[in-house]
Amino acid sequence: MSTDSSPARTILLVDLLLHDRHGRFLVARHVDSMGWHLPGGVVGQEESIADAAVRCSKEFTGLSRQVSDAVLIDQTPANDGQDKPAELIVVVHAGTVLPGETDIAVATPPKGWILQWLHRYELGEFTLACQKQRIERALSAAERGMRAPLHQHGVPAPAHH
User: Fold this and answer.
1) What is the fold, at CATH topology level, of the domain defined by 10-153?
2) Given pLDDT bands bounded at 50, 70 and 90, which one contains residue 117?
3) CA dihedral 148, 152, 155, 160 (to 10 degrees)
């Protein structure tokens, strides 16, 4: 049992699992970082996970998505040596884009970001090991129809557009 009574610093993040009809999924990379990952961001203090997912979808792709389910929850423990807080990453299923939306989704990423569509077999080439595992598990859960409904104060979070 831990004797540390200080509260853990944890950042809540949301990642978007967005597919196209060719079996590809959207990934993002900041120009200053290595490796690709699912697009997403920090869930704001006054924001629900569903609201953050909708906001991130609009910020990254310009597309409005309906988001009501998570497909994976991943935790990264704090790293005291680097004063890095713990992260709780909720991967939400953001659906399948329509054929006309595929190009729109990657056309105008936020400043400093690059977006592209990847096939599953390309994961090892473009992502870090931890991201590869997170994405593969999220894809598997989505393919199997495994979903965890997002709730807010005990009731289903509204599916926003």
Assistant:
1) Nucleoside Triphosphate Pyrophosphohydrolase (3.90.79)
2) very high
3) -80
